[in-house]
Structure formats: structure tokens, C-alpha cells
Amino acid sequence: MDPKSQRVKLNDGHFIPALGFGTGAPPEVPKSEAVEVTKFAIEAGFRHIDSAYTYQNEEQVGQAIRSKIADGTVKREDIFYTSKVWSTFLRPELVRPALEKSLKDLQLDYVDLYIIHQPVALMPGETLFPTDENGKPMFDSVDLCRTWEALEKCKDAGLTKSIGVSNFNHKQLEKILNKPGLKYKPVCNQVECHPYLNQSKLLEFCKSHDIVLVAYGALGAQRTLQWVNPNLPFLLEDPVLSAIAKKHKQTPALVALRYQIQRGVVVLAKSYNKKRIKENIQVFDFELTLEDMKAIDGLNSNIRYYDFQQAVDHPEYPYSEEY
């Protein structure tokens, strides 16, 4: 099946491709590589590209998108591009300048989706992760409802087509949904989601409010990442996933991606390996049975690879809630 036609309708009428290419790379990957792999991903058929200010690669990703438009592979409207407002820019007056900076780096006129990267506000400034002399994070206190209003203004100004959130729990979502004078609902909540953390309660909550759940970390996490707990089990070596993969003559990674697509979750596949990028697009070429889906549901064990422990003392730390 043509991956470009598998899209999910957002609550504002726009459409998001069900499979996205995640551009975030570990620090050891040179920035220049982002140009090459993003171009390759677009050639392979990816139309949904996910990045963020904090990945520090928007210049390269924008260059890749523009070169694929210039050579006729795609038109701008074929590409669905997501950026995120980082935690040091959550004060309402800093939101639009942050988006304008991303657009300047990308050299694009608009992004398709602009989301709050995570609810924990950090002190404004040049540093992405400001810390005090004891190495403790320097938190900021921001009313996320005011941040949301600033995102609504960015949508009205045409700088982004859609707006959403990331790493929010259901109470934080509720706060925005119940905000007096709400103009636009978040179209999505992008969260860590995979068979070991299947987010079924949050997914149910989001679906009931017509909010799309977007899954990052859908293949678990690479053991090398410094913020990932190395003692956690490696998802892609799971025996249940491996057995289902064998049965369908697919890889465990494709089974993990397919699982999300069949639950109505938009899924990001992150890889800087060309062979795997090509392989990930094949998620539309097979289907899991109801039994397969149930077996994968049974793997849920609330294992969170990206738990942002440094922020656990912040009042908006999202993971103290059950979902």
C-alpha cells in the first residue's frame, strides 16, 4: 500500500500521515547526516517528518525538505512537518519568537504542526538545559494555559497549521480542554508509547476527546542514550514480538510499528540507518491478527525509557500521574 495515503484526520480538519520519520539523533551523530537521511526518508516514501528546536537539526532537515521540493520529488503540501517549542520558551511572549526562529532555520513559511515539547518549564535563556551551580535543573513556573493561548495565536497568524502537545498526562490535557475561552483543542499528544508502555488509558482518554496520540520511542530505546536506563529490557529482543515477526516474515521493529497503526496511533520511526528506513515504510504491507494484537497488549509493563527523572520535583512533572 502507498504509505503516503495512510492518513489520520485531526480535530481541526487537517490530516497527519500515520507513519512519521523521527529526526532526533543521538549526540554522536554529526548534524550533516540529518540532511542525507531526511532526503533518503522522503525518497523512500516518508511524508511526515518530526523534529524539534531542541534537536538542533532544523537547518539540516529544512535543507533536505527544500531540496526534495526543488527536485520535484514532493510539493510543500505533500510534507507534514512537526516542530516543538522547547521548555525554555514556554512563557507566552517567547512562543512565537521560538517558532519564528525554527522557521528561519528551516527556511519554510509554515510548519504543519507545532507542539509544546513537554510541560516542564525551564528558565529562559540560551541554554537548553539550564542548571544551577549544583547541577540541578533551573525550573520556571509558567501557566500552560497561557502558553497554549500563544500557540493559538501562532495558528491564527498562519505560522503553523495545527497545534498540539507532547508528554502531557490526562490532567494536564484536561486543564487545556477546560480552559475558559479555548479557541482550538490540541490536535495531538505525542508521548512515549510501545508494547512495554502501551498507554492504553491515555489513548482511550485522547480518543474520547478527538485528540490523536502520536507515539515516540515506538521501538523502545537504544541502549547507548545517556538518559535511558541501561538496565531496562531491550524491546526488540522480546520473545513474543520475535515470534509474531517470524510468523509474518517481518522484523520485530515492523511488528511494533504495525501494532500502533492498528490501534489508531500515529507512529514515529526513528532511524539513521538507510536499510531500516526503507524497511520501516513496509509497515503498510501486512496486518496483525486480533490474537497478535492481544498478545502484544499483554506485554505492557509500564517500562518508561525516557522518564526525564531530572524534572521529578517540578510541579508539572507529567509522570507522577498514572496516565
TrEMBL record:
Task: Pinpoint the site Lowers pKa of active site Tyr.
Answer: K84
Q: What does the record give under GO molecular function?
A: oxidoreductase activity
Keywords for this protein:
NADP, Oxidoreductase
Pfam family, any one: Aldo_ket_red
Which amino acid positions bind substrate, per UniProt? H117
Active site per database record: Y55
> What PROSITE patterns does UniProt report for this protein, alphabetically?
ALDOKETO_REDUCTASE_1, ALDOKETO_REDUCTASE_2, ALDOKETO_REDUCTASE_3
Q: Which residues form the NADP-dependent oxidoreductase domain?
A: 19-300
Regarding protein family, the annotation reads: Belongs to the aldo/keto reductase family.
Q: What is this protein called?
A: NADP-dependent oxidoreductase domain-containing protein
Give the species. Answer: Bos mutus
